[in-house]
Write a structure and sequence with these properties.
Layout: E1 3-7, E2 10-12, E3 18-25, E4 34-39, E5 46-51, E6 57-59, E7 67-72, E8 77-82, E9 91-97, E10 101-102, E11 106-110
Parallel strand pairs: 2-11
Antiparallel strand pairs: 1-3, 3-8, 4-5, 4-9, 5-6, 7-8, 9-10, 9-11
Length: 112
C-alpha cells in the first residue's frame, strides 16, 4: 500500500524556519522524482520544488534561495527546508511522488 505522510508543519513567525518531511512507503522510493506543492486558501495548488532520481532540483521563483528540497533514499523520505518564511508562504504543503500519488498535506502558517 502506497503511503506518503507529511509532517513538520506549524505556526511560525515571519523570518522563521521550518523543515517539512514526507515519509514514503509501498513503492521503490529511489526510483521516483519527488515534489513539494502548496495550496493557499482560494488559490490553485502550485509547485514549490522538485528533486529527481539523481538529485537534480528545480524551484519556484518565489522560493528560490529560501527553500531547499532534499531526500534520503535510505530513509525513504523527502524534506523541504524552509527559511526566511513570509506570510505569503502560508498554505497546506503536499508531497508528491511522480506517477504514484500525493500525501494528505501539512499546514504551514506564517504569522506574527
Amino acid at each position: 500500500q502506497v503511503q506518503l505522510v507529511e509532517s513538520g508543519g506549524g505556526l511560525v513567525q515571519p523570518g522563521g524556519s521550518l523543515r517539512l518531511s514526507c515519509a514514503a512507503s509501498g513503492f521503490s522510493f529511489s526510483s521516483y522524482a519527488m515534489s513539494w506543492y502548496r495550496q493557499a486558501p482560494g488559490k490553485e495548488r502550485e509547485l514549490v520544488a522538485t528533486m529527481d532520481r539523481i538529485g537534480s532540483t528545480n524551484y519556484a521563483d518565489s522560493v528560490k534561495g529560501r527553500f531547499t528540497i532534499s531526500r534520503s533514499n535510505f530513509k525513504n523520505t523527502v524534506y523541504l527546508q524552509m527559511n526566511s518564511l513570509k506570510p505569503e508562504d502560508t498554505a497546506v504543503y503536499f508531497c508528491k511522488a511522480h506517477g504514484i500519488g500525493w500525501g494528505q498535506g501539512t499546514q504551514v502558517t506564517v504569522s506574527s
